[in-house]
Amino acid sequence: MADKSTRKATTQDVDASGPDGIRNVVLVGPSQSGKTSLVEALLAHVGAIVRAGSVAEGTTVCDTEDAEQAHGRSISLAVAPVVVDGVKVNLIDTPGYVDFIGEVRAGLRAADCALFVIAANDGIDDNTRRLWRECGEVGMPRAVVLTKLDHPRADSDRVLAEAQEAFGAGVLPVYVVTGGTLTGLITGDSAEIQADPRRGELIEAVIEESEDETLMDRYVGGEQIDEKVLVGDLEKAIARASFHPVVPVCSITGVGVPELLDLCVRAFPSPPEHQPPDVFTPAGKAAQSITCDPAGPLVAEVVRTSSDPYLGRVSLVRVFSGTLTPDAPVHVSGHFSAFEGAAGLHEDHDEDERVGALAYAFGGGQVPATQVVAGDLGIVARLSRAETGDTLSSPDLPLVLRPWSMPEPLLPIAVEAATRSDEDKLSSALARLTAEDPSLRVEHNAETGQLVVWVMGEAHAEVALDRLQSRYGVTVEQRDLIVPMRECFGGASKGHGRHVKQSGGHGQYAICDIVVEPLPEGSGFEFVDKVVGGAVPRQFIPSVEKGVAAQMARGVRAGYPVVDLRVTLVDGKSHSVDSSDMAFQSAGALALREAAEGVGVNLLEPYDEVTVLVPDDLVGQVMSDLSSRRARLLGTDTADDERTEIRAYIPQRELIRYAIDLRSTTRGVGTFTRAFAHYEPMPEELARQVPARG
Fold it and tell me: Hey, is 519 helix, strand or coil?
């Protein structure tokens, strides 16, 4: 594994001249498509690094975590700027594995345009289509980059055809490989290029996107359209996200690297050309829209948070308006509940803090900065309260940006501290992890007593637990997840509670008789007093109720709370000296337990309403799997041209690993949402297998 201490940040001057001289470019694509290697090739081409690093050797600029180097796979967003012809290009490398889609969405928020990277030896799969939709949903201008041209199984023509079929007619090549170099289909002047049918197809597509309505008629009439006009219209169409050029690039040989950088600088929009997010006041009212102006009010957003052993919490921010300067006071706003509801992953907060030192990110390294202007990305150290997704603004004019869509973690992992020392540190360590990762949620389940970490999948869980140990020195052990069930009486019954103890001196004496009746779902607990003749003194009747309620909370069969029950106190006995509050509480609990022995007690299990979104060709397979999970299907709806929504009620016990199983069943593209629906009786054959809780 490479020694990270030997890596040095770029020697390029990466200070931005202004918003117009910045391009924020995110690299998106499936895992193993070559995004990180492409960043290395781009950095090496402009001299930002001496030579390109290797993913296999763990020497790349962007993969600096031990887990990334060990597995040869990106797990975190990373930024590496390059300067091309006076334009600063912030290259934002994102993971391709589905567990880390939260990092991809953060990268899309930080960027103004995207390079959609596809390996020429792999082609287009369902996961690639899902990532393309992610980009399209936020209106991101994209260029398609075909990588790994040197691979023995590379077939760029096949992959191009698959991309055009999957992504639409706006995906067209603008370069072709000739003699080990790239030649532009518009700018090339050789006879071979002039005769290439792809040239005519490209020119017609560009003309269709042109704002000059006379251009097509002139072209069809035989007029030779000026190359500069075509290139200008092409660049405008790319910036509008209505056209997606395809550029073949080989990271090993460098073929296509200069052309790709030129496209980023000339065709991709600068920050002022990109629509900024909506702005609100901390009270939730719409605020005046912002522009990408260094002289405007400060509005920046934390797009990634990490922990540094020397600097503490480190925040990567995108400045949308104003200029961020060292030692400046800022207001940190986190108001996710205003947009996501009370179930948001982060608590709301408003804090005034002071910016520490500023820097530009360069992978795992940093380049000192004197300021970060609107449109640029920078690193802020020691913002103790800032979390991923928070807004930084002026304390005199606090503002909140509408957060990007956070992925919902759906795989629960029950954990507990390995030692008492770990237990003391676990809570604060998890708080830091959730501040860094919006796709991580921690739940302290008061009913089951378990600490549950909700993650996106097994790889995400592995990374989270590894970070707990490597960063914060906390070791946890996984436990079986306990599903919070309920108990209910199967019919009416009677119970006799006798708590009589004589041990010399003051004794204990309480006797009560109760009648129990199950109530309809959701009725709760009712206690009725029908004692006559003072058999149970008035002051002890609440004690009986308290004892019954306490026993209901503890359960009478498997240790789960009893619900929907009417308990009627009908008789009892007392002693003038030995009766007490505690004695009648004990008698009430004993009476309920005896009543339970005289009638069946059912286990109720929680059901969630689940909506599963899958490709049309997998609907039958997914529905069959749901049926095997005791699901009650509610119906299906067409989501779009290629996907179907399946709605069903499913027991929570059957959903514990569903995030993993659905991914396996649908080749990684099926998604689902869940929300608690109600409780239903568990089949007795399954209920008998549920162990009693201690």
Answer: coil
Question: Which uninterrupted H or E stretch holds 250?
Answer: none
Pairing of strands 279-280, 400-401: antiparallel
The 10 Å CB-count burial string (b at 16+, else e) for 654-666 is bbbebbeebbebb
> For the ranges 6-20, 86-100, 283-297, 321-335, which has the lowest average pLDDT?
6-20
**CA–CA separation, 549 vs 566, rounded Å?**
11
Summarised one tens digit per residue, pLDDT across range 354-406 is 998 999 999 988 999 999 999 999 999 888 888 899 999 999 999 999 988 88
CA pair distance 70, 466, nearest whole angstrom: 12
pLDDT in tens, 222-233: 888 888 898 888
Provide the 3-class DSSP secondary structure of residue 346. coil
3-state secondary structure of 280: strand
Reported as a pLDDT band with limits 50, 70 and 90, residue 220 is: confident
> What is the DSSP secondary structure assignment for residue 408, as one 8-state letter?
P
Which whole number is the average pLDDT over 88-112? 94
Residue 594: CB atoms within 10 A of its CB come to 19
Residue 4: pLDDT band with limits 50, 70, 90:
very low
pTM of the model: 0.89
Q: 367 — alpha (psi -120 to 50), left (phi > 0) or beta?
A: beta
58/67 Cα distance (integer angstroms):
10
What is the reported pLDDT for 1?
37
Cβ-Cβ contacts under 8 Å for 122 (sequence gap 6 or more):
30, 32, 33, 148, 159
Report the chain's mean pLDDT, rounded to a whole number.
Answer: 90
HEC secondary structure over 409-449: CCEEEEEEECCHHHHHHHHHHHHHHHHHCCCCEEEECCCCC
186: its two tokens: 């518009």
In sequence order, what are the beta bridge partners of 569? 514, 529
Contact 397, 315 (CB under 8 A): no
DSSP 186-243: TT--SHHHHH-HHHHHHHHHHHHH-S-TTHHHHHHTT----HHHHHHHHHHHHHTTS-
Report CA torsion sign: 346, 654, 466, 463: negative
Which residues touch 521 (CB under 8 Å, ≥6 apart)? 564, 678, 679
626: β partners: none
335 within 8 A of 402, measured Cβ to Cβ: no
Which of 201-210, 251-260, 358-367, 408-417 is least confident? 201-210
| The pLDDT of residue 2 | 40
**Residue 612, phi-psi category: left (phi > 0), alpha (psi -120 to 50), beta (remainder):** beta
Helix (H, G, I), strand (E, B) or coil at 62: coil
